[in-house]
Amino acid sequence: MAAPLTAWPWEFLGSYKYLLFGPLIGKALYSIIHEDPLKVLMNSWCLNILIICALRGLVHQLWSSYTNMLFLTRTRRILQQGVDFKQIDKEWDWDNFIILQGLIASTACYLLPFLQNLPLWNTIGFISTLVLHVGVSEPLYYWMHRRFHGNYFFENYHSLHHSSPVPQPFTAGSVTLLEHLVLSAIVGIPVLGSTLMGCGSIFVIYGYVLVFDFLRCLGHSNVEVISHKLFEKAPFLRYLLYTPTYHSLHHTEMDTNFCLFMPLFDAVGKTLNSKSWGLHKEISLNAGQNGRAPDFVFLAHVVDLSSAMHVPFVLRSFSSLPFTMRFFVVGFWPGSITAMLAMWAWAKAFLITFYNLRGRLHQTWAVPRYGFQYFLPFALDGINKQIEQAILRADKMGVKVISLAALNKNEGLNGGGTLFVNKHPDLRVRVVHGNTLTAAVILNEIPKDVEEVFLSGATSKLGRAIALYLCRRKVRVLMLTLSAERFQKIQKEAPADCQHYLVQVTKYQAARNCKAWIVGKWITPREQRWAPSGAHFHQFVVPPIFHFRRDCTYGDLAAMRLPDDVQGLGSCEYSMDRGVVHACHAGGVVHLLEGWTHHEVGALDVDRIDVVWKAALKHGLKPVSSSKVN
Question: Is the alpha carbon torsion for 149, 154, 158, 164 positive or negative?
Answer without folding.
Answer: positive
